[in-house]
Design a protein that fits this description.
By secondary structure, the chain is of the alpha/beta class. The protein is 40% helix and 21% strand. The strands form 5 sheets. An 8-stranded parallel beta sheet has the order 3-15-14-13-12-11-5-4. A hairpin with a 4-residue loop joins strand 8 and strand 9.
Length: 372
């Protein structure tokens, strides 16, 4: 257990980090985000660069002032888009023609096509840090190359070495004109280096040793949950666990299912980000959880779109004390989703994030009791 102290508040760890990709936790107002107990969220540098642009965000006082999210924020460097856009099926429209979303990957950086308007956007380690400074998230990531799980050893090694060189360039950039708050000269942003290496044990360990040696403020593990099995993903984390620092926060990028969290906190992971609770909520998948005396007992998911809930006047979750479960029934949520009413997305998202909050409380309590 621990605490990450930032300019915008403290994060008790282990913690779950919901994803607010474009500066919003979809369907929730900042007031609702606060009510539900979210203590940290994740925004995406690439998407904010392409729209609305980092200049307007900086003029608004950074992403906190622009979005009114009053919690510590983490930002991705854009490195994940090296993987997600390069392997995706979407194309950018440029003068009526379809162009690949990743134009070029080189030692210097990556050229992307904007998913918004097809404009060519260049990300280098220096530009990624510059963009993230302007966005103003509390915890920022070094620019890296995220690999597809099918990458062979030759390319994985080349990619890892490139990521290491990019990390050194990010560190140099982050120490030049690094933002300082006006309160007690407090450091405003903290840089995480990212471990890569694909599915190869020797590369993962080599990367872990290198990244930890660079003395960044935190360490992240990237390139997992990109197509491999859960068993393979856990194995990749286990390979690097012995090298992870005990006195700095460790983040696992893109992983956050309940079973993953329960298994991986034991390897020294402090924070986890994942889109699942909010994405599934918008599809009508509602978490059902049972916790007794802060101890996790049961985890289920129900599809509120199923006809069996049409006349069900039970609370959304009998074991939950959130605003949604205190006021609404399964039949009402069924009605909202069937009629495509936007309130359904809000209520389901609110509930799922409340469940994640309670779940992480139970995880921390289990650690206190030496049960994990």
């Amino acid at each position: 257990m621990g605490k990450i102290a930032t300019f915008h508040g403290e994060i008790e760890t282990p913690a779950f980090v919901p994803v607010a990709t474009k500066g919003t936790l979809k369907s929730l107002t900042p007031k609702q985000v606060k009510e539900v107990g979210v203590k940290v969220a994740f925004v995406n540098c690439y998407h904010l660069v392409t729209h609305p642009g980092v200049e307007i965000i900086e003029k608004a006082g950074g992403i906190h002032g622009f979005s009114k999210l009053e919690v510590p924020l983490m930002s991705d460097s854009g490195g994940f888009q090296v993987f997600s856009l390069a392997t995706g099926k979407r194309k950018a429209k440029v003068f009526g023609e379809e162009e690949p979303l990743v134009e070029k990957i080189s030692e210097d950086g990556v050229k992307f096509r904007s998913t918004y308007d097809g404009t060519l956007v260049e990300f280098t380690p220096e530009k990624s840090i510059e963009y993230q400074k302007k966005i103003g998230a509390d915890l920022i990531m070094a620019f890296d190359e995220c690999l597809d799980c099918g990458a062979d050893h030759v390319y994985a090694k080349k990619s890892m070495e490139r990521t290491h060189e990019w990390l050194k360039r990010c560190i140099r950039s982050s120490t030049i004109d690094f933002r300082i708050s006006n309160i007690k000269n407090q450091k405003f942003q903290f840089l995480y280096g990212i471990i890569q290496g694909g599915k190869y044990e020797n590369l993962r360990k080599e990367s872990a040793k290198f990244v930890v040696s660079q003395n960044t403020d935190g360490v992240a593990i990237g390139g997992v949950s990109v197509g491999e099995t859960k068993e393979e993903m856990r194995q990749q984390v286990s390979w690097v666990s012995e090298y992870l620092p005990e006195d700095k926060p460790v983040h696992l990028l893109g992983v956050g299912h309940a079973d993953d969290i329960l298994d991986l906190v034991g390897y020294g992971i402090d924070t986890f980000d994942c889109v699942e609770p909010t994405r599934l909520a918008r599809m009508g998948t509602i978490y059902q959880i049972q916790i007794s005396n802060f101890k996790f007992q049961r985890w289920e998911k129900i599809d509120i779109n199923k006809t069996i809930y049409k006349d069900n006047l039970e609370r959304v979750d009998e074991n939950c004390e959130c605003y949604v479960c205190q006021n609404f029934t399964k039949a009402y949520l069924y009605h909202l989703f069937k009629q495509k009413e936007l309130l359904g997305y809000t209520l389901a998202t609110y509930h799922n994030l409340w469940v994640m909050k309670r779940f992480m409380e139970s995880v921390r309590e289990s650690i206190r009791r030496n049960e994990i």
